[in-house]
Design a protein that fits this description.
The chain is mainly beta. It has two domains: 94 residues, Ribosomal Protein L25, Chain P; 80 residues, RNA Polymerase Alpha Subunit, Chain A, domain 2. The protein is 10% helix and 40% strand. It has three helices and 13 strands. Strands 1-3-2-6-5-4 form a six-stranded mixed β-barrel. Strands 10-7-9-12 form a four-stranded mixed β-sheet, with no helix packed on it.
């Protein structure tokens, strides 16, 4: 990503903090943001919620945050969603030097149709949807394209087999399976249970008799 392509976001410092102030900001269409790192005091600010959401939906990792006119490059470190998981309500950003390498998580985009998917009952599974990589802050890919068209039945594709963009190094486990073509297993109905064996007779105590024991007869 060239420096000129880094998305910019306008922020304003928050004058009031706390739950009440945060709710008021959100009702006004603002999204709370915290900027921290590089041994500088954290900055509590707000962004236009619509602009921030749109930027994040375009897989932004590195942004230029302008806080009351002061511009600094930042990494999107954490995104908080509402309890329904449908709306972004808070963002954490970390200050970054454009010349330093950073470790980030990047979304995977699968392309192509596996050749093995044409087999009866075959389907492709995606155990993971993102990878951890290391690269310069200015070289973070928006997404990682993964071609699965050569996958056959019972074949897998691991993280270490993915061709990453130049200058991007894999941090995730190379043996991590990111895609596989499998055959759906038919559910087998359990066989009818065999006839249960006859219940054994209970061992009963001998019936009591009126006849006294032989020792007592001698008395």
């Amino acid at each position: 990503m060239a420096t000129a392509a880094i998305p910019k976001i306008e922020l304003t410092k928050r004058t009031k903090l706390g739950k009440t102030a945060t709710l008021a900001d959100r009702r006004a269409g603002k999204m709370p943001v915290v900027i921290y790192g590089h041994k500088v005091d954290p900055v509590h600010a707000c962004a236009d919620a619509k602009a921030m959401t749109e930027m994040l939906h375009h897989h932004a990792h590195l942004v230029e945050a302008s806080v009351d006119g002061a511009v600094e490059p930042c990494l999107i470190k954490d995104v908080q969603w509402d309890h329904l998981g449908s709306k972004i309500i808070h963002v954490d950003m970390a200050r970054v030097d454009l010349n330093e390498k950073v470790t980030v998580t990047v979304e995977i985009k699968f392309v192509g149709e596996p050749k093995g998917a044409k087999a009866a009952g075959a389907f492709i599974s995606h155990p993971v949807s993102e990878l951890e990589v290391n690269c310069l802050a200015t070289n973070i890919p928006e997404e990682i394209l993964v071609d699965v068209s050569n996958l056959g039945v019972d074949e897998t594709l691991t993280a270490g087999e993915i061709k990453l963009p130049e200058g991007v190094e894999l941090e995730s486990d190379p043996e991590l399976i990111v895609a596989a073509v499998e055959i759906a297993q038919e559910e087998v109905e359990p066989e009818a249970a065999a006839d249960a064996p006859a219940e054994p007779e209970l061992i009963r105590k001998p019936a009591a008799t009126d006849e006294a024991p032989a020792d007592e007869k001698k008395k």
